[in-house]
UniProtKB/TrEMBL annotation, chain A:
Protein name: ABC transporter permease
The UniProt record lists the keyword Ribonucleoprotein: no
Alphabetical list of PANTHER family matching this protein: INNER MEMBRANE ABC TRANSPORTER PERMEASE PROTEIN YDCU-RELATED, INNER MEMBRANE ABC TRANSPORTER PERMEASE PROTEIN YDCU-RELATED-RELATED
Family listed: Belongs to the binding-protein-dependent transport system permease family. CysTW subfamily.
Domain annotation ABC transmembrane type-1: ranges: 81-289
Upper classification of the organism: Bacteria, Pseudomonadati, Pseudomonadota, Alphaproteobacteria, Rhodobacterales
Length: 300, 364
């Protein structure tokens, strides 16, 4: 009797590899960031081990250089927060609008050619992000492909300034993250029973009504997964806003980078990173709760 | 039951999938009239084109050639959402994200009917299929038989002129299937809607239909009442597909009117009916059909045929006696077990008496 119980006691050791990874790889770095956000910045970067809330204070507020007691709201930071959230939302919506017909196209191909289309969708993933982003830059810069063609065709008289604008960031992010929307949407459509679409037509629904009442509700899980997958990397995007925003249009990722680099204010950078995490988690919870409420409403 | 007015008229209709020489001809030259208010069955083995024909009527497939009129109006080229036809799908295809009531009301909602009218019709339909208690359930929360009822109610709710049923009973177990057969007949009687029913189950077709079209390889071989299809099959395939059948190769001894004198194995001459339009020459070899219940065991030397008993198989209500005719042709005879009949000894020789009109000549 005692023998099996003895061995049972050490069974948790089997979880040790998983626990080690969870603690070291997931919680560990996060904990370090959290601790750093409450320390004092060193003069040459790094931190001095002295407790301070100045990093967190500076996330939202700003002190006058000459009069440290003159406190104002840090509108520059708030603008960056807002821009990050707003651009990420737009990216998500744009990806959903572009991703739906793309995924639908793939899902309605004959089974043996679907793999090829999916393969084509994932190819950009194998190319370096920086190279893809520079390719976009080449397309939209003032002497780039689009402006050259439009000028040549006489549609415009002067090049349109697209590079180094929020529009450029939006286009770049939508391009980079589109597969993350297409793939879960495709997975949802692949499971869709097309007889339901026929049943919709049979019961006098028009194309638009079938889309709205049959297809969209049934592929909703794909939209949810795709939105989450696009929104999260968008809000923390670094390379795309850096290259296409030209350092003039900052997003949260760039702001954080600035604090760890030129700004030499690691605690502020750490606090900003935690803020980003909080925004993502809050957005996710809000999103999922809204969805659940919709679901609940339909029962009643 | 059928008023005789045409509900669906199909003329020279063909359907080819794919293009060019590699195209697959799913339907060839279909001519068919389905009458108002009748229970019409498309019967055939899988792959015979019956489901394709149903899908063409529904509007899910467009005919490659030919005309399709519903209630006198040409509908070839129109989509399913503009035809007064609703379908009960093989696997029901209920919308999983809607409740039973929402499923039933879907068609009326799409037709833009008023909320009050939809609610009233849904309540009426729920009552018709005895599903009132399940109105708020999701399809996943009800049984297969109940899903079947909901699918029926959903298709009936918009009051279509024609209800198409694509093997709707095939997913149900035997007992439930028998119940639903009765239910379907009752619903058809109560609504007066034309039912077009697709099945590969010949027994189902015989018991439920007013008329049957037997299909094979994209063609309609014969259309008629269950009685006509069973007793006067025109072709070997039809006779073989419907019920148990004995086939005999016989020689034509003479032709008279709609019948022929044929020489049976062993030499006896018997009268056989001829299918319409068939006039074989005297001396030609033709195939005749004899149903197992239309022959009787008699004393050796009597009757039209002599046979040797191989074995008897007991089925409860009746017994199948397996026999060999002269020339080694197999013959199965069905005897109803109405009294304590002695089973014939295997190996013994018996005589076979054939009922009047038991023989039917069929084309090959």
């Amino acid at each position: 009797m005692a023998e099996p119980r003895e061995s049972h006691r050490w069974k948790w050791l089997l979880c040790a590899p998983a626990l080690t990874i969870l603690v070291l790889a997931a919680s560990g770095p996060l904990l370090i960031v959290l601790v750093y956000s409450f320390l004092t910045p060193g003069n040459m970067g790094g931190v001095i081990w002295q407790f301070s809330t100045e990093g967190w204070f500076r996330v939202f507020f700003r002190r006058d250089i000459f009069d440290p007691d003159d406190i104002t709201l840090n509108s520059a930071h708030l603008a960056v927060f807002w821009r990050s959230i707003w651009l990420s939302l737009q990216t998500t919506v744009l990806c959903a609008i572009l991703g739906f017909p793309t995924a639908w196209f793939i899902a309605t191909r004959p089974a043996n050619t679907r793999t090829i289309w999916l393969f084509l969708i994932t190819i950009p993933f194998w190319t370096n992000l920086l190279i893809r982003t520079f390719a976009i830059q080449e397309l939209i810069r003032n002497s780039g492909t689009i402006n050259t063609v439009l000028l040549w065709a006489g549609v415009i008289d002067a090049p349109i300034q697209m590079l180094f604008t929020e529009f450029a960031i939006l286009i770049g992010m939508a391009y980079v993250f589109l597969p993350l929307m297409v793939l879960p949407l495709y997975a949802a459509m692949d499971k869709l029973d097309f007889r339901l679409v026929e049943a919709g037509y049979d019961l006098y629904a028009s194309r638009l009504q079938v889309l709205r009442h049959v297809i969209l509700p049934l592929v909703k899980p794909g939209f949810i997964a795709g939105s989450i997958l696009v929104f999260i990397p968008s809000i923390g995007a670094y390379v795309t806003p850096r290259v296409l925003g030209g350092g003039r249009t900052l997003m949260l990722g760039n702001l954080i980078d600035l604090q760890f680099g030129q700004g030499r204010n690691w605690p502020l950078g750490a606090a900003l990173a935690i803020t980003l995490l909080v925004i993502v988690v809050a957005a996710l919870m809000f999103y999922l709760r809204t969805l659940n409420r919709d679901e609940g409403g339909r029962h009643g | 039951m059928s008023t005789g007015t045409a509900e669906i008229e199909i003329t020279s209709l063909s359907k080819v999938f794919g293009a060019g020489a590699s195209g697959f001809r799913a339907l060839s030259d279909i001519d068919l009239t389905i009458r108002q208010g009748e229970f019409f069955t498309l019967l055939g083995p899988s792959g015979c084109g019956k489901t394709t024909l149903l899908r063409v009527i529904a509007g899910f497939e467009q005919p490659t050639e030919g005309s399709l009129r519903i209630n006198g109006k040409e509908v070839a080229g129109e989509g399913p959402n503009s035809r007064p036809v609703n379908t009960v799908f093989q696997n029901y295809a209920l919308f999983p994200h809607m409740s039973v009531a929402q499923n039933i009301g879907f068609g009326l909602k799409m037709l833009g009917r008023a909320r009050s009218e939809i609610d009233a019709t849904v309540a009426e339909m729920l009552k018709l299929v005895q599903m009132e208690a399940m109105a708020e359930r999701k399809p996943a929360e009800i049984s297969g038989g109940q899903q079947q009822r909901v699918a029926l109610a959903r298709a009936l709710a918009p009051r279509p002129r024609v209800l198409l049923l694509d093997e709707p009973l095939s997913a149900l177990d035997l007992k439930l299937r028998k119940g639903m057969q009765t239910e379907l007949k009752r619903l058809q009687g109560e609504t007066g809607i034309t039912f077009v029913f697709v099945t590969h189950d010949q027994e189902e077709a015989l018991t439920m239909s007013d008329r049957i079209a037997v299909m094979s390889a994209g063609r309609i071989l014969q259309t008629g009442s269950p009685h006509q299809i069973y007793h006067t099959p025109r072709e070997r395939f039809v006779a073989d597909f419907i019920g148990d059948t004995n086939f005999l190769q016989v020689e034509v001894a003479g032709v008279d009117g709609d019948g022929a004198q044929v020489k049976l194995p062993g030499g006896a001459v018997h009268r056989a009916r001829l299918p319409q339009g068939m006039r074989p020459d005297t001396g030609a070899r033709v195939t005749v059909v004899i149903r197992p219940e239309q022959a009787q065991l008699v004393a050796p030397g009597q009757g039209a045929l002599a046979a040797q008993v191989e074995k008897s198989v007991f089925f409860g209500t009746d017994t199948h006696v397996h026999l060999r005719l002269p020339g080694d042709a197999p013959f199965i005879l069905r005897r109803q077990n109405t009294g304590a009949l002695a089973e014939p000894d295997p190996g013994s020789t018996v005589g076979l008496a054939l009922a009047e009109g038991a023989l039917q000549v069929v084309g090959d």
